[in-house]
Amino acid sequence: MARKRKRSLLEQGNSRSCSIRKLSTNYLNLSSSSDEKPHPRLVCFLSLHLFIYSVINSPAEKEESTSPKLTKYWLQRYNLFSRYDEGIEMDEEGWYSVTPEEIAVKQAERCRGKVVIDCFSGVGGNTIQFAKVCSSVIAIDIDPVKVEMAINNALVYGVDDRVDYVVGDFIHLAPSLKGDVLFLSPPWGGPMYNKVETYTLDMLQPKDGYKLFQIAQTITPNIIMFLPRNVDLAQLEELAWLSSPPLTLEIEENCVGGRIKGITAYFSCCAV
Length: 272
Ligand code: MGP
Ligand code: SAH
Prior knowledge:
By secondary structure, the protein is an alpha/beta fold.
């Protein structure tokens, strides 16, 4: 199992300034031993040079800066996975799509003791928390790389043996699935989802939200959807009361550190 250890930006910053300080001091020591004081401009120039050199050549910096657009997610890495440093693996979509751990814990708590199907399991943010409290978990993702990462990440949390992983298309697999609760955290169309004022259900992928919900209902009425914070709440209510029989709907705003990250809609024919 590939285990990557990554230093935090702060640690990198500290070690970088330490090594610069050390190198500059060495240089000054050398100079003073020969009793020749270097020109202050030369010291400045060399320090700057060493700083740039160490920034460019820091392996940790290189590893983390492969995609600058992901930096904001990397800075929140411990909110995404508290055990991030123990070998968590992510890809680009994983970084911007994973459910923050605090939210996943709450969603899983609602499914305690049940058989849960995590229909769009990604790198496993939700799957791990379901595995901790549910009687069994089926995790489905169409992308085999995500499933490999999810297995690795479940290993980090010691719950890998409590999940059945399936590489496949939820839409095609649906007729063969059985479970008490269906959890849907589908692609929202990328990190630009919040560029519209109101996110409508037709923007969900791989099918629009109405179709996804219809497919989910063929398996169970107990459906949980993790959706953008700007989702059209009236459409969610519509989904609930247009169902036959009408479903109860509970909407939860999910915050981390005081910022809303998403909305969870709990649909049920009875309390889940
Ligand atoms: P965000 O809005 O991209 O990040 O995603 P953040 O840090 O709130 O950005 P800010 O600059 O607006 O403050 C917030 C959360 O939404 C992520 O942590 C994911 O849990 C979730 N999320 C985002 N996207 C694009 C998706 C997605 O496509 N699918 C799913 N299931 N969740 C997503
Ligand atoms: N809840 C997950 C994030 C899910 S992101 C977590 O916490 O980690 C949405 C996922 O849906 C992506 O990993 C993507 O590969 C997957 N996906 C997209 N289309 C799919 C389909 N038709 N069937 C199953 N998975 C799909």
